[in-house]
Amino acid sequence: MAALWCAFRRLEAQTGQALVEYSMIICLVVVVLIIIVTLIGNQAQNMYCNISGGIGA
Q: Relative to the CA of 17, which of 1, 25, 41, 50 has its CA 20 to 30 Å away?
């Protein structure tokens, strides 16, 4: 709980510019993660279809 409180106080002490920069970095990371998960999801689906087709299910 103390660590959360310290993190909140540090965040509160940040200037507006730094907060905007951190927000932009977080948004970029989220977009990259969404793209990666989408690509991996499609590949996993294709792999499952290939395996089930090979088994004859």
A: 1
Number of domains observed in the structure of the chain: 1
Closest-CA residue to 45 (of 33, 37, 56): 37
Task: Report, as ranges of residue numbers, the positions in the chain whose pLDDT lies below 70.
Answer: 11-15, 57
Smallest Cα–Cα separation from 39: which of 51, 47, 50?
47
Considering the domain boundaries, does residue 30 fall inside one? Answer: yes
Distance CA 50, CA 44 (A): 10
Amino acid 12: pLDDT: 65
Question: What global pTM score does this model have?
Answer: 0.52
